[in-house]
Specification:
Order of helices and strands: EEEHEEHEHHHEHEHEEHEHEEHEHEHH
Keywords: ATP-binding, Nucleotide-binding, Transport
Structural class: alpha/beta
CATH superfamily of the largest domain: P-loop containing nucleotide triphosphate hydrolases
InterPro entries: AAA+_ATPase, ABC_transporter-like_ATP-bd, ABC_transporter-like_CS, P-loop_NTPase
Strand content: 25-35%
CATH topology of the largest domain: Rossmann fold
Pfam families: ABC_tran
Family: Belongs to the ABC transporter superfamily.
GO molecular function: ATP binding; ATP hydrolysis activity
Shape: elongated
Number of helices: 13
Length: about 325
């Protein structure tokens, strides 16, 4: 696959009267391959939006190299701008204009066929509300309009900063389906969101930024696997006896309310066999896996990663490599 977005060593410092010199982005790297739905995650103030603004030429970087669709940014960004759709932060629209008029003006300004207006309104679920004034729109509807404006050019690369902001659960699901359909059509999507469960459902790759530095990068399944402690939730009729038997077998066991947690066991057969040979039968054996939210909190703060019960089909994770930054994440994110 070819790289659609390349960022290497990006640095950006701001100077303010109140805070003085503040490093927003500190040697940040990002690589997005063609065809990916790539999640870009970071807490508020981590440098995420500054990175997107620098990539799109909206702020000037102090150092680093950036490329979009093979073109140096910002020097040659104009050469590929027609193939890039983006929303960064919360776009502003004229309240007295209708959604249809807003998009028509944007289409004319960008030499886009005006027939695309109805198409993108349909895509984002605003076809029946297109003739209403934007000032009467809810926050979620304005967000849909922003996504529609980014889709006008039928882009090869779509950059979405918090596209689900203000959407209700049904709207979030629709946005998820839209993102999947775009990816299936060959559009590369860079998606930033605070709804981490959605990122885990939609994205195949993820980059996490904290305090201006990259702290994790790789396929979502591989990043999560890097924090897997091989824990199992066990329920038996005699938990105290089970603790004794498993401990005698050299397994790490933690008693819990109504269950046990066994850590460091790759093959659960070891647990059931150890207990079964002594006539103690397992009633429940559930793998405990970290999810993206727990890993995110671990990498960007002082929160431990709790293992969460999650039924899995036992399939191995997808091919890929955990970036070295994942293994060093506790030091980098501290």
């Amino acid at each position: 696959m070819s790289a659609v977005i390349e960022i290497a060593g990006l640095r950006k410092t701001f100077h303010t009267l109140r805070q003085g010199r503040r490093i927003a982005v500190d040697g940040f790297d990002l690589l997005v391959e063609a065809g990916q739905v790539h999640g870009f995650l970071g807490p508020n103030g981590s440098g995420k939006t500054t990175t997107l603004r620098a990539l799109l030429g909206l702020v000037r970087a102090d150092a680093g190299r950036m490329r979009v669709l093979g073109a140096e940014s910002p020097e040659r960004l104009a050469d590929v701008a027609g193939r890039v759709g983006a929303i960064v932060e919360s776009p502003q629209f004229f309240g007295n204009f209708t959604a249809h008029k807003t998009l028509r003006l944007l289409a004319l300004a960008g030499n886009v066929p005006t027939a695309r207006v109805d198409e993108v309104l349909e895509q984002v679920g605003l076809r029946d509300r297109g003739d209403e004034r934007v000032k009467g729109y809810s926050l979620g509807m304005k967000q849909r309009l922003a996504v529609a404006s980014a889709l006008l050019k039928d882009p090869q690369l779509l950059i979405l900063d918090e596209p689900a902001n203000g959407l209700d659960p049904a709207g979030i699901r629709e946005m998820r389906d839209l993102t999947r359909s775009l990816a299936a059509a060959g559009v590369t999507v860079l998606l930033s969101s605070h709804i981490l469960a959605e990122i885990q459902l939609i994205c195949d790759h993820v980059t996490i930024i904290s305090r201006g530095r990259r702290v994790a990068y790789g396929p979502v399944a591989e990043v999560l696997a890097g924090f897997d402690q091989h824990q199992w939730q066990v329920r038996v009729a005699e938990p105290e006896r089970a603790v004794e038997l498993l401990g005698r077998a050299g397994l790490a066991v933690t008693p819990g309310p109504g269950h046990l947690v066994v850590t460091g066991v790759v093959d659960p057969e070891l647990i059931s066999r150890t207990l079964g040979e002594q006539g103690l039968w397992v009633r429940e054996l559930i793998p405990l896996r970290p999810d993206l939210e727990s890993v995110f909190l671990e990498l960007t703060g002082d929160h431990p990663v709790p293992a969460l019960p999650r039924q899995v089909d036992g399939a191995p994770p997808s091919d890929g490599v955990i970036d070295l930054d994942v293994r060093e994440s506790r030091e980098v994110g501290a």
